Amino acid sequence: MSLLGNIIWLIFGGFLSGLGYIIGGLTICLTIIGIPFGIQAIKLGVATMTPFGRRDYVSPDYSNFINTVFNVIWLILFGWEIAVSHLIHGLILAITIIGLPFAKQHFKLIPIALFPFGRELK
């Protein structure tokens, strides 16, 4: 089921969305200061391309000082816009029964979009 869900997800926007995150991440990586944020954007892009069959994994060092500082900076600069985008797309998809599994995937990506440092989809 997850293979079929990922294929349908990729065809109907997941590929372009993930590619946008990856291109944005590579652009952010052009500056030395932006490299940690670019890596997280690339990680978010890969997670966005194939979300079916994956779970949100929080690493043991999630709440260390550096991750907390980077998560706050990420939240202010990038995270809230990405999370609102996933929320809106999820709400639109949740209107129909067919869209419910895809809405669930958007809702699953919201915590990672808000606080990506120390989190992954595995």
TrEMBL record:
* Species of the source: Cyanobacterium stanieri (strain ATCC 29140 / PCC 7202)
Provide the leader sequence positions: none
TM segments? 6-39, 62-80, 86-103
Q: Report domain Inner membrane component positions.
A: 4-54, 69-119
Name of the protein described by the UniProt record? Inner membrane component domain-containing protein
Superkingdom assignment: Bacteria
Instruction: List the record's Gene Ontology CC terms alphabetically.
Output: plasma membrane
Per UniProt, which keywords does this protein have? Membrane, Transmembrane, Transmembrane helix
Q: Which InterPro entries match?
A: Inner_membrane_protein, UCP028777, YccF
